[in-house]
Amino acid sequence: MSTLKHYFIISLYCLFGGSILSATAQTENLGLFDNENPLKMTLSGTLPPFSEDPSKTPRKYLQVLSYQNANGNKMEIPIEVKTRGHFRRLLGHCSYPPLQLIFPKNEVQQTSIFKDQSKTKLVMPCRGDEYVIREWLVYKLYNLISPYSFRVRLVQLTLEDEQRKKPIEPFYAFLLEEEKQIAKRLQMLPLERKLRANATQAEHFLRMAVFEYLIANTDWSVEHLQNIKLLTPDAKTLPIPVPYDFDHAGLVDAPYAKPAMELELGSVRDRRYRGYCLENVQQFEPVIAHFNALKDKIYQIFSDCNLLNPKYQKSTMLFLDEFYATINNPKKWQKEFLYPCDPNGTGYVVIKGLRED
What sign does the dihedral 303-308-314-315 (CA atoms) show? Predict the structure, then answer.
């Protein structure tokens, strides 16, 4: 599917605020991440508790995943779920734990949209599902910017939890492509070795780092594989960094997100370029041109989505305005993107909690 067609379907859904969900969802026999329509999905069983010790291997819980296929038939798949991640599991005010869905091979039918899945991350709301929708849109934004990006699928999720007396109203979540799956799709290999940022492909690193600056996300590191995966076509070629996990980005503006103290930022809405020192500023010029070419589509991802609060949409337009005012002013963008070269700055510090090499 071309980027333009891919984007158009996203905007069409957002524009009508979900009205196309029942009319067109599951109309094609596509893979899980090939169909842009939101998926109505139910999980039935006992949810893993927040109280599990994050330092121990999470226990698996039996669940039944059900959805409606293209023919209108109810499909049911026995699966296992377990908690994943660390930060959101420690937050006492999160509504639901982040989950990983595990699909037994003999239970996933060849006609199922889950036929290619062995395990899939399910990103759940922490404080309200609008923040989940915002993060989902950030993933879609990076799909526009780079083909080396994780695919996501918006889900209208119903939980039938045996431990809860009151029914749970459906809410939005999203499914996230697994690392092995993106590597297979792009015909690349995952690389689990920590590297210096300048040991990655410069063009793709700069595109990724400027994207992180755009969304005001400082919660990432190539050196420590912090919310970054590395993909390489072969053992002799420099890898490409692929970002994920954007809930701490200023563009998402989650209520629990705070910048690391070491960065000396007042808010997650304050931008800080976290790339490496690159004194040859001409290398930024094609990256800036790339973002300028995508400007209208980037704005429309957020302006056309009626699932978002209008107040947030307005503030996001202003937030994007600030980014484009910076990258189209040479003095401003050079000051921002050369910040890691300042020995007295915080542009390239090791954040507390990340181990140094």
Answer: negative
Token output for 189: 């290999």
Task: For residue 306, give the H/E element and its range.
Answer: none
Three-state DSSP class for residue 58: coil
What is the token pair recorded at 218?
């400082």
In angstroms, the CA 276 to CA 338 distance is: 9
Q: Are 155 and 174 in contact (CB under 8 A)?
A: yes
Q: How far is CA 98 from CA 2, 49, 50, 94, 243, in A?
A: 31, 10, 9, 9, 18
Report helix, strand or coil for 77. strand
- Specify whether the CB–CB gap between 182 and 228 falls below 8 A: no
Under 8 Å between Cβ of 234 and 189: yes
The residues spanned by each domain of the chain are: 3-184, 188-341
Burial 261-296 (b: 16+ CB within 10 A, else e): eeeebeebbebbbbbbebeeeeebeebbebbeebee
Q: Model confidence over 232-266: pLDDT tens digits?
A: 999 899 999 999 999 999 999 999 899 999 899 99
Number of CB atoms found within 10 A of residue 219's CB: 21
Global pTM value: 0.89
What is d(CA 185, CA 16) in angstroms, rounded to the nearest whole number? Answer: 31
